[in-house]
Amino acid sequence: MNDRAALDLLVSQGPLTRTRIGELTGLSKPTASQLLARLEAAGLVRTTGNVTGRPGPGAQLYEIDPVAAHVAALAVDPLGITAAVADITGQVLGEERVDADAAAGEAPHQTAQLVARAVDGALARAGLARGRLHGVVIGTPGALDPRTGRLRYAPHLPGWHARGLKDELAGVLGTPVTLENDVNLAAVAEQHDGAAQDVGDFVLVWADKGVGAALVLGGRLLRGATGGAGEIGYLPLPGAPLTRGGDPGGGHGLAQADAGGGFQQLVGSPAVLALAREYGARDVRTVEGAMAHDGVRAEIARRLATGIAAVVAVVDPRLVVLSGEVARAGGQALRALVEEEFTGLPLSRPAVRLSDVDGPPVLTGALRTALATVRDAVFHTG
């Protein structure tokens, strides 16, 4: 427990002296010295210079040894895959983007080729081989059903629906692979690096070409019995056709663009552009240009608030985080309008914030998830 406490401090606060580690953990100097010697021998900690600017000899600084482990994080969309490789401190060492048509062969083997190419490209930029990876997290539209092992809600991603895909990817890459919903990972990013750092109960609403949500209650993601919690793109709302049939088309979150009805049809990027044409906006080609029109922005805010109100009535979050292309384009003006729409409703009124993640939210969340898993494994010194 002392080892893990010291390692977590070094991760969160950077280089620390033995004395400072002792102060923060409550350990005596001899115990802190023994702990650091043990971690250094295990290859988890290294010295990194001395504290300067004080009278007398400078105290030695300790930090996590970056080469103790490496992870890969991937974000999948209908057009391709983006991969990033980082060391155990979270420092990104290499990134690679691979287009969806860059691999030959039949699905699902084509999917494994694409993933391997993206990871290998990021590894090459980092100067690393596959054998240095300790874990991979892949963020993808859709939801992995824990009962069947299949990806649901994402038929627009050919090759990603095979039951054994996860095992195939792990075999190709030579390391454990985790598949996770993209919007869930965007919520992880907000939880650790963005607008929800101080909140345990929040909903992230992703409004883009696809529409989805991630529900975080008590600090934990709510996944649902089949992994499909947060499929708000299919919410039946006035003014939108219902999606009917078998397993719904489109995809949870970033790429639910082909969904046949529901909330998706009211607030997704295509709906914004359609409104811009209807309102005679100056720019009807881009979401950013369309959302610059006061009428379009106000109508999208009203529609967003209507759908979000249904979620608020069920889970009662403290915070709603708006993310995705539509939220970015609408900015603070859209956020304020959505919050204003809650006035007078017989519901709790959560705070509404815009996404505040520096960088791609899905990739950031995948990296955070991969690092947490690998640190749990590597930092186990008992």
Helix content class: 25-40%
- Name the average pLDDT: 88
Q: Describe the main β-sheet briefly.
A: 5 strands, mixed
> For the largest beta sheet, what order do the strands appear in spatially?
6-5-4-7-10
Oligomeric state of the chains? Answer: single chain
Helix count equals 12
Sum this structure up briefly.
The chain is α/β, with parallel strands linked by helices. It contains 12 helices and 15 strands.
Structure description:
- The structure is a single chain.
- This protein is an alpha/beta fold.
- The chain has helices spanning 2-13, 18-25, 29-41, 109-126, 165-173, 182-193, 264-267, 269-279, 287-291, 294-315, 325-341, 361-378; strands at residues 16-17, 45-50, 60-64, 70-77, 80-87, 92-99, 133-140, 143-144, 151-152, 177-181, 202-207, 211-217, 220-222, 319-323, 351-354.
- The strands form four sheets. It has a five-stranded mixed beta sheet with strand order 6-5-4-7-10, with helices on both faces. A five-stranded mixed beta sheet has the order 13-12-11-14-15, sandwiched between helices.
- The longest helix is centred in the last third of the chain and has 22 residues, at 294-315.
